[in-house]
Predict the structure of DEAD/DEAH box helicase.
Amino acid sequence: MALEFIVGLTEHRTFGYIFQAFLIEKRISFYAIEKLVKLRDLASLNLNEEQIALVKQIEQYSDEKLVQKFSKLKEASKFFQQMDPDLFENHISPYIDKHINRIIRLLMGGQTRLFFKQAKYSNLYDEDVITVPTTFSECIFRFDRSEAGTRYSLQLEHDNKPLNLLHRTVTLVSSNPCALVWQNKMYAFEKISAKKLLPFFEKEAIFIPSQVEDKYYKSFVLNTLKEHSVKATGFTVSAGEGNKRAILSLEPNLRMEAIFLPKFEYNGNEYLANSKTEVAVSLKQENGNYHFIKILRNREWENGLLQTLKNLGLIEKDGSWFTKGAELLSDIDRLYELISWIAKNRQQLNDAGFQLQQNQFEKRYFTEQQALDIQIKTNADWFDIYANVTFGDYQIPFLKLRKYILNDIREFELPNGETAILPIEWFTEYKDLMHFAKQDGQVLHLRKYHYQLIQKRLKGIDKSFYQRLLDIGKNAEKKVALPANIQATLRSYQHEGFSWMYQLYEHQFGGCLADDMGLGKTLQTLTLLLKLKRLKKQIVIPEFDTHSEQMSLFSDTENHKNEEQAEKDQPASLIVMPTSLIHNWENEIQKFTPSLKVYKHFGIQRKKAGGFKQLLGYYDIILTTYGTVRNDFDLLQEHEFFYLILDESQNIKNPGSKTYQTVSQLKARNRLVITGTPIENSLSDLWSQINFINKGLLGNLAYFKREFITPIEKKNDPEKQEKLQTLIRPFVLRRTKEQVARDLPPLTEQIRYCQMTGNQKRIYEKEKSAIRNQILENIEKEGVEKSAFVVLQGLTKLRQLANHPSMLHDTDENESGKFDEIFRSLESLMAEKHKVLIFSSFVKHLTLVKEQIEMKKWKYSLLTGQTTNREQVIKSFQEDPDNRIFLISLKAGGVGLNLTSADYVFIIDPWWNPAAELQAINRAHRIGQDKKVMVYRFITVDSIEGKIQQLQERKSSLAEKFINSNNPFKAITKDEILNLLS
């Protein structure tokens, strides 16, 4: 026989009647219970979806489940013995009722049979079957009012037929809502609780005397009308639409988080959007009569309004509404977000019919639209910014909000006491503007070099003028015409660099030319100065009298006239540089721009006091050093220069240094800095140089540290990086050698002229005098040809002194101008991450360089005649990206090396054998090299090196003897030797 799945209504020892699931088998006159079905049995039984659902619901109130949910005790017996009555009444019983009612609904809509199952018996009979109806029973409340009071009764119906349960014995299955069994038939009510039915099983009606009925009508009758059908006499109940309105309330929840609560009001009765109450009832009393107006909630109207909130970006969770992402914000930011949402969507909310409320906040927040109106006018050096904010009926100057925006304060109190929340966009868009602009009355002045800060706020600005600013550095094809008398052919990128500087000049902006070492920054700068050269009165400047601070041939009257004329003319440009670069600048001026008159203002013979002003009016360029600026600051600060240019401007990277302080205070119409390494260690290096060219562009140093250095260097903040780049981009031009490689020849050679230090010069001159006397004495005795060794020995000593006095005098106190220049250049190349070969014919010279490299903790390789592991040394340099310096002796490295990873070559002590130098250069510049190679020869001026260099440039007979002869002393004369030693 097949087993049948049924549900049995059985009595629990503690909870009253409950449902259980069974499998029964049909016998002749009864049904035998074969199995109590539990959740664990589902896998082994072939049940349908309805039966599975019934088992799952029944399992929810099993003893094990109830103990697990409502007790910390592990033993069920103890739990039921010690059960707290309040726990049962308020928690356990409603929980069981919930699942009992779900089972009843499943039975009403399904095919499963229901039986009475007595606890002590395991057999069932046909008379135990309980009929389960497919519809709910109805309950109509009757209120009959008379002068004496109100009679209250119930009228029960099922399938539109009276259901009389007065004095009947019923089995209560569920309390809320009520479900009962009478005469083997179940009656289930959809809403009403058993508490309201049970009194009428014992008596027909309840009477409420007139003395207490007022309270009764206002509470019980009114609430009954909301939820149930009512028949009334002695008072009226009418249906109608009534007055309704939609409310959107901003208020805190129990966790004090700001939320929106949509509410709907019907005739003064307010309901939350998620309230299940469907009927709104209001009461009117007139002359002792009660009149109820019963209004059915208009769900279609409500849902349309809720959809409007969703369309405007709100989301709902557990009855609370808020903007997407608001749950991730802090409490105060969440509140500000919701207030901003109201202001943004206020018109749409009004149009939809919402009335806005704020409840339970300490402050009253302004939720109307805020509008910011900005007008910008262009001035010579400034943008004049006029701005007002409209808060509803109030108009506030934007300047009043300055301290709020700078200090991230979003709350602003309006004159009426309401608190306005400043939009978060104002802080991101205008904080920089507020910081950098200067206040003048009701106007903000913003310097022109901050033009990128107003890029999105162009109302009132001259569009064509602003576009010209935006085009700075962007229109490389629109190159400025080169000056006609430039004695050089500029490469394309050099022409672009000159054009960029000229554009900055036109707008009176300072600039930082930060090209890689060797790309011709000096030439680009000189091209600019030549382009801007003005015609001047021809004032004859005689040779300076080295014994006087005044020009020897000018009378006082002539001096006065010339000073007046100089004031009308364009003054000289002052170029400040390390001492070692003076000669290089002078040489390039003579070579490329010989029409620019140049004066070197350094050393003991430099002009001071009155004579300097006349120099300013006559010369185009004054070359000076950082040390001279510090020493002559009182003199230099009295004058205005046309251009103030700093070469190797990383010298002012420390804003606390005297060098930075002095050069920053000099007066100039235009400013420019030149460097291959604008940032050596920290972003503060950049600040000092940018602040020099465009004071205030990056704010003060404290602001710059807070706003940029800390976020970028410690947190690598990409937003701050982009913001900084936006600010400096128009004023910094940097091209790497790789970027302009198409414009470069395969090999570029330059000479770096190096000045001797004062002490080096004294040692050199002393040794030169002694060597000269020794050679003369030897030539007198032996003749020129037999004096070759003595001459060579003497010239070699002078070469060593020109390199570094420590090569002859082994002491740490010696200084060398060439040595300083080598390391100044190396600093740039290491910062730019280039690889460099350093060749010397003196191992001692390489050793001095090596010791300094080790002090700087740079990685390097060394190859001399003593090196045994050549292949390993070469491989380390070629393949290790951090090993960027290769020190090589000319003798050891002249042949057999392939060093194509290097793109710079330093020849630090050149001499008269070009063949040896060419071999050295070819270590890098050879087949397989994909980079453009730059060669630097370091020549000490006013030394034996300088003499030979001059001879090579003039291609004199003496140069030919030295350059092309294996034994130059065979053909050289005494006078020629003495000339080398002059």
In short: The chain has six domains: 3-130, 138-212+223-231, 239-358, 370-467, 492-696, 747-980. The first strand starts at residue 3 and ends at 12.
